[in-house]
Amino acid sequence: MFSSICQPPCSRALRYLSTRCLLSTRSLTTASRISSRPLRQPPARRIATSAKSSLPMYHSTKLPLESPKSILIVNKMRTQPVILAIDAFLEHVHTTYPGVRVFHEDRVDIPHGAEVWKPGPHAEKIDLVVTLGGDGTILHASSLFSTGAVPPVLSFSMGTLGFLLPFHIDDFAKALESVFEGKATILNRMRLACTFYNKDLAKKGSDGDDWQVMNEIALHRGSSPHLNTIDIFVDGQHLTEAVSDGLIVSTPTGSTAYSLSAGGPIVHPSLSALVLTPICPRSLSFRPLVFPASSVITLRIGDRSRSPAGVSMDGRTSHVLKPGEYVNVQASPYPVPCINRSSIIEPGDEGEHHEGAGPGKDDDWVRDINNLLQYNATFRSKALLRHSRT
Fold first, then answer.
1. How many other CB atoms sit within 10 Å of the CB of residue 218?
2. Which of 246, 346, 383, 384 is the most buried (most CB within 10 A)?
3. Basic and acidic residues composition bias: which ranges (predicted)?
């Protein structure tokens, strides 16, 4: 009985040696498998590492107490409702806040009473951006400030639904009052900084500036009948070789856009994260991943890729990457400060306004998940139940 519980020293030594040999054999096999991969990695020294520096916090904060001195209006196509809304907005600003300059993009349909504004290094300083339209209008407003900080964005819906549309146009007077009195809160929505490189590890593009992306950057095979072969690096370390229709790197804001349609996770916009989502991958075990905002994701078109990769950022076609070329994606130091809908709800109004909570409470996202996505809704909707015979 004693021998069955406590084994002799020689038996324990033999078992220990055999286990060590087995582990060594597995390690050598794994190492040989990895070292035999024919892969040309971009030098780690040349991969941008600015994301390692201090990044902005993405929780809600108060707007500066200083009242805006200049407002930029960004709107979608000037349909009749948009024209009437802009006219009413301009009249209210000029009457209630005299001395505030109102700008508009340099377009043929610039409204009367607004000054022309052109983006660029010598552009007039803007303290507040007001958008009228859908989510695409806010993405366009973000692209106007692609090289630096974005002013606070006050977005109004023109009847469309979207995750970035906190206010209805009928509430513009109350929303402006909240901004000018310093009661508004903002949510800094993360952007991506995308830098493109050619085969010689030199930056592509004449200006050399990073592209700022609010939703996502997508690499796709476009019209090619062949799948893309893309090598993925995280902080210079090879993650995998992806054979798929493409890849998406999105922000938490973009997690409810293209990435969600491709099977990606829903991420709260106050988190600092990068979402990597494959588009129709050949391998069924290739699942979406979420990385911290301090990571640098490198997407390199493989030398064996049978087709180049088209690049679209926030729905805009920008580049075509050929085999050997790559793009670095990292968190931008310039987020988009979006004014929360809950900013205009007074502390005692929760009983009257079922849509909001008190100022400073981040309830917009939870409400949008339920109202827009019908999160966890049953298959039998209320409309069907009303017409049911049972």
1. 25
2. 246
3. 350-363
